[in-house]
Design brief:
The complex is a heterodimer.
Chain A: H1 2-13, H2 24-36, H3 54-64, E1 68-73
Chain B: H1 2-5, E1 7-12, H2 20-29, E2 35-39, E3 45-49, H3 59-81, E4 108-117, E5 123-134, H4 136-140, E6 150-152, H5 155-158, E7 180-192, E8 196-210, E9 218-232, E10 237-251, E11 254-265
The chains are: A mainly alpha, B alpha+beta.
Chain lengths: ~90, ~270
């Protein structure tokens, strides 16, 4: 009986570490955010294995003897990447 | 099709390296300053596309034309490339600190997603994806200061939420921090327990700028927002920060309702 009691105590105290998801106020705001977030399909382009480094992309293309798909954007003298805003 | 056939690269034309690699891409720009190319490593263009909106078409028609044109260009590029062994490259997050962990200098890069809505309240247009990068000093102000129940986030940090005010992907239509005319972000401790301090933020923003600096094309935006931060008492650091903003974006005569999510976590959630 004592063994069972100790085992129960160990099991009760060994749960996963508490996280923000356990905080009701955060959880409530997450639900509001979920209503705004676009569906995953709107971000399918992020699943493409983009390079953001010119040298690395060219090196890989030459090594594989394969064409590049080049997305060039900008013209406003701003930092950033076409994968966000630039 | 793209991942299977090509080595994809996305580059900012104003930040190309000043070397032979940069010259490779500058050469492409002689045809057009931006767009999509399929090009061999030797520099031969196999296909090209740049979408120019047709004033005779409405927004949806232009979007369809853009997608169709891009798809046709990719098909053309695959055909021109000849036989290619399929690639098996996996996408690697190019911005691992976006919305996660600390930046190299101890600050934080908050992940922003912004959506615009049509008159029927339905999302319209592609979601805008951006980041608000806070310095170490600015980021430190989001954590509850010892002995204080309420405080204000410095204006320099609050203004960086400018990226969350515009539901457009082209940066000329998006206010920068310097364009924010009013930014107030207040914080208060909601409660403290054994594990966490829960902080609530209330924010208000207004911005005004001119497209390309031309007073003929004014753009104004405003938003209010609520945020929750969870500060981990055991780890002595912020664990999560989440904001939801709602506002309006006015480009010339057209006004669009907007919503944005701005977020950050210290660690990836366990799967």
């Amino acid at each position: 009986m004592r063994r069972i009691w100790i085992l129960g105590l160990l099991l009760a105290s060994s749960g996963a570490p508490a996280s923000a998801a356990d905080v009701p106020e955060y959880e409530a705001l997450l639900k509001k955010a979920a209503a705004i977030r676009p569906p995953a399909a709107d971000f399918a382009w992020q699943q493409i294995p983009w390079h953001i480094d010119a040298a690395a992309a060219l090196k890989e293309a030459k090594a594989e003897n394969r064409p590049l798909l080049v997305w060039l954007a900008g013209g406003r003298d701003r930092d950033g990447s076409p994968l966000e805003r630039c | 099709m793209i991942a299977k056939n090509f080595v994809p690269v996305a580059l900012n034309t104003d930040r190309l390296p000043k070397d032979a690699d940069g010259d490779f891409f500058r050469e492409l720009m002689k045809r057009w300053p931006q767009g999509l190319w399929v090009v061999t490593p030797e520099g031969k263009t196999l296909a090209f596309h740049y979408h120019k909106p047709d004033s005779k078409k409405n927004y949806a028609q232009n979007q369809k034309a853009w997608v169709d044109g891009t798809a046709a260009m990719l098909e053309e590029g695959v055909k021109a490339a000849g036989e290619l062994k399929p690639r098996n490259a996996r996408a690697v997050n190019p911005f691992p600190d976006r919305g996660l962990g600390l930046t190299k200098d101890g600050g934080a890069r908050l992940a922003a997603t912004v959506v615009g809505y049509n008159r029927n309240g339905q999302p319209e247009g592609a979601p805008a994806v951006d980041s608000a990068t806070l310095t170490k000093e600015e980021w430190a102000t989001f954590a509850p200061p010892a002995g204080k129940e309420s405080w204000s986030i410095p204006e320099s940090a609050a203004k960086k939420f400018a990226v969350a005010l515009a539901p457009v992907t082209d940066s000329i239509f998006v206010p920068r921090a310097a364009d924010v005319t009013a930014a107030a972000l207040a914080a208060e401790v909601l409660r403290t327990d054994d594990e966490f301090i829960v902080v609530r933020f209330s924010g208000k923003w207004e911005s005004k700028h001119f497209r390309d600096g031309d007073p003929k094309f004014p753009i104004a935006a405003n938003a209010t927002g609520t945020g929750i931060a969870v500060y981990d008492l055991k780890k002595k650091g912020l664990q999560s920060v989440l904001f939801v903003l709602k506002g309006q974006y006015k480009n010339g005569a057209a006004t669009t309702a907007t919503a944005a999510v701005v977020e950050w976590r210290a660690e990836k959630p366990m799967e």
